[in-house]
Amino acid sequence: MESINGEIKNSDMKKLPCEIVEDLLPMYVDELTSPVTNKAVEEHIGACENCNRKYKLMKHPVSEKSQKEVKEIDFLKKTKKSTRKKIILWAALIWFVAVTFVCFTYFFSGKNMNPEYLSYHLEVNGKDLSVAVSTISNQGIQHIEINEVEGVVEITVRGVPKSLIYKGSRKANYTASEEIRQVWIGNRIIWANGEPISNITGQLYNLYNPYVGNMPSNGKIVNALNMTVFTGDFQNELQTKNEPYAWKMILQNDFSKNRKEVLEERLKIYAYVLLALVGNVSEIEYEYLIEGQKYTLTVDEKQASEFAGVDIKTVGEDINKLENLVRKTGLFNVVFADGMTNEEAMVDFSFDGQADKVMVITVVNFAEDKVYGLGLNVNSGSREAEQGMCNADGSALLEGENIYFQIIPADFSGGVYDGDAGKIELSVMDQDGKMTKVQGEVYADLIWGTIYRVYLTGNAKDGYFIGK
Fold this sequence. Notes:
Layout lengths: L1 E3 L2 E3 L8 H12 L5 H13 L1 H11 L4 H46 L1 E2 L5 E8 L2 E8 L3 E11 L2 E10 L7 E7 L6 E4 L2 E5 L2 E2 L2 H7 L9 H11 L1 H5 L2 E6 L6 E10 L4 H18 L5 E8 L2 E8 H8 L10 H11 L4 E2 L2 E2 L2 H4 L13 E7 L7 E8 L2 E7 L12 E6 L12 E10 L5 E3 L4 E5 L3 E10 L3 E5 L1
Parallel strand pairs: 7-9, 13-14, 16-24, 18-25
Antiparallel strand pairs: 1-2, 3-7, 4-5, 5-8, 6-7, 9-10, 10-11, 12-13, 14-15, 17-25, 18-21, 19-20, 19-22, 22-23, 22-24, 25-26
């Protein structure tokens, strides 16, 4: 190697020692070397990985701070990616747990069923209890839970979607630790002190209102009695300045003369119950029109007490006294309508697609013997509708099964209007096709677009019975 004009000259520049190249790199990067030197350096760094790396660092210097920032950014990216994965995994886990819980609750554990959608047949003998429960909803009964505290038995029915395993009816037996005093289903008493309690009584008992000035509570009693179905809408006026306190109802409908007697009798019945259930009211007054002429009717505590046979103010908080009052009024024997819904009733409205042009009579079969068919008669004065049903294959109707009859206006021999009084009767058919009339009858204020529910009980030997 020799120096010519201060530049390096060598026919084999690739053999330049790395130390020389490292010394030349700062001048090379700053473009202070000659083309010959440039060529020699480039040939060396092209073949020497170590010198090439040092050249790149000199050409594109990275500060310690920048290197640290790069490392931090890389760390943050990795952390963010890891965190995102964890969030996705946790979200998936939470979703899985939630879906599992919902599925378990809905399909296996079930939920408490509303007593409004339950029919039941109860027998109590001392400490022993047996109950058969059926539902008019689209739920199946998962299980019947029975608990007891000091002779008070509470029955809870849990429902799940209907299936081959969970059907719409179920039975249960229970032996209490002491003699049974009361039986409840949900929040409603159905048996007390040796006496069955009707649905309407159990519902009214929970609505006792000490103060007539509490109109929302008054309204709940009115709704439970289904008053407006018979009376139509009315306005309320309260007299609470001085005793005796009074509640006045001003009916908005104008009634025909042929309904006057029935209307006034029903208004008295409602007044007896209201005086029992509203603690401090002493008079119930009605104002109404009969073909344009104004009438008034007042019922006070004394009249209500004479009808009940006991002080009317002792009735509302005593379930057995209230049951006796309801039986005397005949409300025990009146079927109150449930809300009409396709989903709950499982009824076909395809004949005209109008739910308000049909009545549905739901018969819940709790007969002890096999029944192979049912006959239904709905009578409203001189107008009546009749229907019958049986299984096409001749099999018996299932115990606890709900049998639906659909009545349309054309089924009646004459017109039936909302609020007309009706009587519901049943007949049962045995395996030989013989029809036997069921004992008893129930009454209903016939309203188009509603469901009525009655129960069939009893057996061939002692007789079949219809009830609520």
